[in-house]
Amino acid sequence: MTSPLRLCVRRSAVTGSREAATLVTLRLPSDVNCIEEAVELVTRHCLAGHESTESIRFRLRVVLSEAISNAIVRGNCEDCNKWVDVRAELGPDVISVYVTDEGPGFDPSTIPEPIRPEQLDEANGRGLFLIRKLVDAVQFNAQGNSICMILRRW
Amino acid sequence: MGFSESKESGGVTVVKVDGQLIIGNRQELKDLVQGALDRGDRRLLVDFSRTGYIDSSGLGALVSISKRIREAGGELRLSGLNDDLRSLFELTKLDTLFAITETPEQALSSF
Q: What's the predicted TM-score (pTM) here?
């Protein structure tokens, strides 16, 4: 069966950067069954050609899975006519990964931290919290439908 | 990627998570545990010795099955978490909710 994922990898000057960086883009449909393959593809390209610790690989896989999952389920409401775009800018020291959906966006400041004792029994609400804990910086666009996750390689 | 289920001699149902526990397969784990409860099993161990990563949906699924097992009067143990996997439980404070042992053998002897 042909994969519905569309991957593009190229070496180019990234806007705002003084150095050439490898740019990886991936477009996937709003299907949760595509997430694992997308995570593996992007992770492999993000770490290719660099010495990486197992911890970086682990953190990258978890946050990619979280961000893509949020984009598909909460952003695109699993609408098969909507896509999720992943864009990774790969510098020598830093990996910047953008995950963008076609939804209306949300206000990340309204998401509560899920670690109060009375919330431990809740099944949902840990995704964004985990992302914030596992990467070095998180940014959102003004609309709130695109997250940028920044990880230092070292 | 998937789950394998076995019954240990002490009557403990062991579920091994092979690969990832994420949004795409969490329901399979919940169904598997529900099936074990429906058969009357009350002592369950989920082993992560061969697990790559877990996302928040996977953690949520574990919270859900923990509740179901507790309500049925059963016990759940988790084992085989490497340092990275364990950090997810510590960051989310779920290490305070679950009984976690280093190895499956330790979990089996703790029931």
A: 0.92
